[in-house]
Amino acid sequence: MDAGLVLMSYHGSWDDAAYAEEQGFASVGFVDSPLIAGDPFVAMALTAERTSTLRIGTMLAIPSNRIAPVCATAIATVNRLAPGRAFLGLGTGNTGRAILGLKSLPVSRLAEYIASCRALLDGEEATHRAGDTSRWVRMAHAPEDRYVDRGGVPIYVAADGPRARGVAYELGNGWIMGLQGCNAMVNAPEVLGASLAAARAAAAAAGKGPDDFYTMCSLGLCVLDEGESPMSPRALERVGPVAMLPFHAYADNPAIGAHLPSPIRDRLDIYERTVLSRLDVPRDRLYQETHRGHLSHLLPGEEEVLTEEIIRMTTLTGTAREIADVLRGLQAAGLRNVTLNPPPHLAREAVREYAAKIAPLLDAGSRA
To answer: What is the number of other CB atoms lying within 10 angstroms of the CB of residue 84?
Structure first.
């Protein structure tokens, strides 16, 4: 199974990506969240210059952030810098739109965008709409020239719900999933395994074999020391920002509170009291502040919201053997890439921890 990183396009993220390549990592994806992170395509270009084997892409580009002709040209430009190594990860936009005070895009909009990017990268026409005007457009570049290399760029689709997964099967070359709908340390292989089986079947129905459909899972990971609690300061620093994501989603849309798992739902009052009530913005502008620590750090008061149960159900936090057991289960189910999303200041430590403590156990299991 390949290992990858999700990075926030911070200054020096390109050097951290190069370090990950040195440690055997296969991919790096850059977050597309304006207002709280740097521009992903700038970071990808600098990463391309510093690496030779690492696959480089977006995790995830959002259709509303740039029109399809711009996005297709941008990823083809990265592919020109790193031939055969660029990938385009696309999604409906959670944090990337939430920080603008907007909801995720409809799946139909994502599907249209994927189809347009795919057509343009394949040298075909795509419909471009600007207001009331609609025109057929195509990239004027040759498949490979001094500007771009648009050949062989795969599109991976982020999908948790069944409709979005259907789009991934039909239009994409792969599927990027999270840990939604499962308890990470308890039943992740079973829950995601069922979805992966459906993905393989749907991909086969679309004429795509296992080698044509790449499966990735983005997650938080912390290898606990002997006797260490998931609520230790060290663990919270590493995976607390990931564990807080359901609470941030609630802040954006309180109506989902009733549908969250009970361990999270039971802490919403504490989240309201210790975090949201302390933010110095009106209630209708909470989105300006709640996502400030996205995949980076805990905001003041957030450490009081989390529990050991929440940490272990939303992230892979446990002993090296426990984590390896979960990952082996996911690998057996068909997962091909586990992508870590560490805080920026701990990216290299996360790479070293995975390479030294988890990868050897996975290798040993594959030889057994």
So the answer is: 10
